[in-house]
Amino acid sequence: MTQSVPRSERASTPRSVDVARLAGVSQKTVSRVFNDEPYVSADVRRRVMAAADELGYRLNSAARALASGRTRSVGVVTLGTALYGPASLLMGIERAVRDAGYALRVVNTLEGDPAGVTGAVESLLDQGVDGIVISEPIDEGAVAVQVDVPVIVLGASPSFVAPRAVTAGVGADLLARVATEHLLDLGHETVHHLAGPQRWFAARDRLDGWRAALAARGRREPAVVEGDWSAASGYAAGRQLAADPGVTAVFAANDDMAIGLIRALAEAGRGVPEEVSVVGFDDIPVAAFVTPPLTTVRQPFDAVAQEGLRLLVHAIEKPEQDLPPANDPPVELVVRASTAQPRSRTIPGRDR
Amino acid sequence: MTQSVPRSERASTPRSVDVARLAGVSQKTVSRVFNDEPYVSADVRRRVMAAADELGYRLNSAARALASGRTRSVGVVTLGTALYGPASLLMGIERAVRDAGYALRVVNTLEGDPAGVTGAVESLLDQGVDGIVISEPIDEGAVAVQVDVPVIVLGASPSFVAPRAVTAGVGADLLARVATEHLLDLGHETVHHLAGPQRWFAARDRLDGWRAALAARGRREPAVVEGDWSAASGYAAGRQLAADPGVTAVFAANDDMAIGLIRALAEAGRGVPEEVSVVGFDDIPVAAFVTPPLTTVRQPFDAVAQEGLRLLVHAIEKPEQDLPPANDPPVELVVRASTAQPRSRTIPGRDR
DNA sequence: GTGAAAGCGCTAACAG
DNA sequence: CTGTTAGCGCTTTCAC
């Protein structure tokens, strides 16, 4: 009897029919129970669950995705660095995605990767995702991908062109502004900026915030020094800034650079905060324990991720509705010992 | 005429039949081309590709997974922290997974999460993955999950019980041993250890390596101080250790703690490295720029991830074969300024 | 409240 | 080298 021999000797992994048979219901009812659909009597529900439990049944997500056309997953494109900022954001995104009931797929773009964001997005599309998060992108010129799922860009990128792309700021500009104002409030005439690499939108945001703070008070805007986020680049910048006696306050675009900067300043005999005040950005774990403890602003990664995901999920599940209004992320300045009043206070003028 | 009206007004997204029709071949041939199967003439291949391109065709991974029984994805369970070590490992894993031709799905277990690793693994199983990587697990007691896919535990965990579970060390014990020996070689009679939380296997490995180095030279083993990876805990430990004049060398289980420790030591008037030498672990980005620049050991995250993935992919694709032999990850000690000879050298004895 | 039938878009197995 | 025939395990649609 050569009747329906299964394609392989698939021994195990029960399917919903098996559960149905055991529970004495139809396969469709099992499906209803597992999807929390209404109109299933409590009793049937219980029987189905018991049967499923006994068999060790697990919904097959591939079959579900095929039949429903939805994967219940979102993909995230990250930069592939373990830098504190991007890594923290990624963790926040994971949590937000899971809380929203989706699965997370991750693809990195390494800086300098020829395929870049486009390649990463393509790969996500190949995998099948219901939505895409682009985290802290860098400027690769205009990126235009034919995407039919909603995309949210966390950290400003007017350069991503897609039918359903939304941009959600991470509030870095505001944070940068607060950092700069802190220095100004202390009595510094102006504030220098040690910027991040300007290919990163995150770095541009911070620069914008710094610039806005200065402009709002009519202060002169010193030349920007650009680093690459690393402490080494901060150190190099520090050697350069140390030579300029006009420098009394510096806002660094991240804590790593701030730490390198402080070291160079100290080596050059310009004590922090006695001669130069420094504010960092991120509040990395060691910020409170370096010498001197670093004044910095903390980024609300979790809040940003949640907010972004709220928008994305909305776009996925209610495509016909308008996007809900965005909430501003909280701002937190952490004042420690790397900032102080300028040594020789004069009445703060508008010029030196 | 109410003939075959599609279930929705599915407008677009071409399927392989559409490509086949356009290319003038059978659907199966399209499948062959997209799977790089042999025995397709170059000409047909070209025509199919052209047709696919024209239509903007993309293989449907859900259908593929359903039909083939393989998802071509691996899941990773991480701890959900942005700590430098775990975050770096995750980035390494992403790269290794992608290089191996798989997609990556990520689920975090937050420490203290009731569901823990078990819950994370279940969630991955629900999503459907061909293999699972458990990254830097912590001890939650014996974890036994009914898993039918291969599992690799990166960072030693005899507590994970599954039919096809492999453990791949990250070499932390060896690195810890090298760090300790560096201090001993400098002439310190013994080395104290500022350990990580012992629920983490990563912390235990380091402790083991430290212990082994001491034992190999017959040195006394001082009481261990345990921190929680944070600089704050390192600081607390530092206050405690500063009070003990017998402490001349400390091996800290990560750089963050080492930095907190150094600060506490300095505040207590015990200069580093004049009075106390300190070695860290990880080589975080700022390690070279704190005061004093930190001697530390660098973890070979990429190598560990690659090695682990090699084993996992082998287990997935050649389940019948034995696992290939493991390669040892490289060891790299970075000597900077936080370590020196003990101040008053006596002939190194075996006891005080 | 529940069930039967008809696919979702692909790969497996085998025939040519 | 290429095509045909069956499903993979679920959701959808519609009937009861």
TrEMBL record, chains A, B:
Keyword Transmembrane helix applies: no
Cross-referenced InterPro entries: HTH_LacI, LacI/GalR-like_sensor, Lambda_DNA-bd_dom_sf, Peripla_BP_I
SUPFAM superfamilies hit by this protein: lambda repressor-like DNA-binding domains (SSF47413), Periplasmic binding protein-like I (SSF53822)
Keyword entries, A-Z: DNA-binding, Transcription, Transcription regulation
Lineage: superkingdom: Bacteria
Domain HTH lacI-type, chain residue ranges per copy: 14-68
GO-annotated molecular function: DNA binding
Protein name: LacI family DNA-binding transcriptional regulator
Source organism per UniProt: Streptacidiphilus cavernicola
Lineage: Bacteria, Bacillati, Actinomycetota, Actinomycetes, Kitasatosporales
